[in-house]
Amino acid sequence: MNPNDHNIFIILDSLPPRAIKTWIKRHDDLLDYTAEHYAYFSQRRSQLIDELKQALSANTVPFEFKNWKRIVSQEFSNTPLHTVGSIKSYPGGRFNIGEIDSKRFPKFPALYMAEDTKTAYVEMMGISPDMGSDGLTGNELAVAVNFSHFIISGNLTSILDLTNPKSLQQFYSQIKQIKLPIYFKNRAAKLKISQMQPVESLEKLRKTIFAEDWRLMPMQFDSPANSQIIGQIAHSAGIEGILYPSVKTNKRAIAIYPENFINSEAFVEIKGNVADTVRDKKIDKNTYKKYLP
Length: 293
Hints:
Blueprint: H1 17-47, H2 49-57, E1 60-72, H3 84-88, E2 111-114, H4 117-125, E3 132-133, E4 136-137, H5 138-141, E5 148-161, H6 169-175, H7 182-191, H8 202-209, H9 216-221, H10 226-236, E6 241-245, E7 252-256, E8 267-271, E9 282-283
Parallel strand pairs: 5-6
Antiparallel strand pairs: 1-5, 2-7, 3-4, 5-8, 6-7, 8-9
Helix pairs in contact: 1-7, 2-6
């Protein structure tokens, strides 16, 4: 579904006090509508789950990378390959689910890194290169010293390469079978809101996956974003990672799922000299459990 079709924002300061109670009721109605809408699509995806997993798995490729960059906050500087940060953050990462609603949406972690330092930093912080804090831009912060920087190399046997526009063609061919019942159109009209339509093309699917405001769905409506759903299906299919173009810099970044190293020769390791306090420097099928929350 396309969250950008669903416009319900209201500035509370613009409402008179007597209208606040009415707005709260409307807000609850909108959340109910969104939850029901999500549940419908989730149930329909579950009917196609084997086909969806196969559609992603059939488009995986091996991927070797050298001297990529991982940025972690100081609290994780001694365990830089651990994935706990990806689920502690709300609502998780672009391709993994964190603290949204663990009863409805089970959490699963990912290890994020990028091909250059700037991209690794702005992806971690969720900011653009020309944005920042304390008077510094993302570009300037990327060379600051309030985080730890690691050089990472690895070899993965099966990744979904979203830098290839055709990698989701088979997946889209499956999900386009899901149609929106008239019920949701009528209910949206009753609530006087725009409908959340199914994505109507492969191009639009990719647009939602790489949306700058992908956090809108989990943060406003307590439902995973489309990119997180793709990650969930890829993770459950045993795919080792998702390679994608950063919307911040257009450089490549990757989300890796160490749990899926269990029956693989894949590995990820820290290269170069690091402090003696740094623990667990290599993830493979024998060690991956050390890196899970």
